[in-house]
Amino acid sequence: MGLAVTVLGCSGSYPGPGGACSGYLLDDGATRVWMDAGPGTLANLQRHITVDRLDAIVLSHEHPDHWTDIEGWSNVLRFVLHRTGFPVYAPAGLRRHTYGDTRPQMAWADVAGGDTVSVGTMAFTFSRTDHGPETLGMRVDAGGRSLGYSADTGPAWSLEALGTGIDLALCEATMSPEKEGTLQHLTARQAGASARAAGAGRLVLTHLWATLDPVQSGQDGAEAFGAPVEVAAVGARYEV
User: How many domains does the chain have?
Assistant: First the structure.
């Protein structure tokens, strides 16, 4: 197989009814990575793989809607898998926010913009986005395919920073059009424009506030992208 991404959560900033915050399962047939671990995503992860099959976690930044389920994962490692040294890649500032940061269950590796790391059979390249605190967009290359993930960002950063040849862009589209320019987040229109500038083959909008109409967001994104787009939903799987 090439590279597939399964949506574990896609709500922006807080979980919508029955939803979960940011989290995605990446699988290329040999390596399985949990990319961002927002509230609710650990429960959904177990709908797709057993806990013993996960190889690593990669986190984009320290805002709680992108990482807090690793606290539950620490208990999985400690009491179920009886494992130490599980690989976690994250910006340097994130670990200090965790409850169990002195436990041996996780082996933390700091990453920053410009870094490229190999996680099993996947290559992750990081780019600092327009979002505070330090937030890392990611390019994932595996199985001959390329995924671009915006994480959280404002419009001063673009998916173009992840390089050419992105087959599928997973881009935040947090805000309604009237909020454009008020926060370091994107609207669906801006997400579409960013993916188009990057020459992405396909676009999936994610990190929408629960108050948004996903149909309207999809239309706004498609108009700017110049082609149909998809709006992420929990459980959706995309072949990159």
Answer: 1
Residue 11, domain CATH: 3.60.15.10
pLDDT in tens, the chain (240 residues): 799 999 999 999 999 999 999 999 999 999 999 999 999 999 999 999 999 999 999 999 999 999 999 999 999 999 999 999 999 999 998 999 888 655 789 999 999 999 999 999 999 999 999 999 999 999 999 999 999 999 999 999 999 999 999 999 999 999 999 999 999 999 999 999 999 999 999 999 999 999 999 999 999 999 999 999 999 999 999 999
Rounded to whole angstroms, how far apart are CA atoms 136 and 31? Answer: 21
The domain in which residue 144 lies consists of: 4-239
> What is the pTM (predicted TM-score) of this model?
0.97
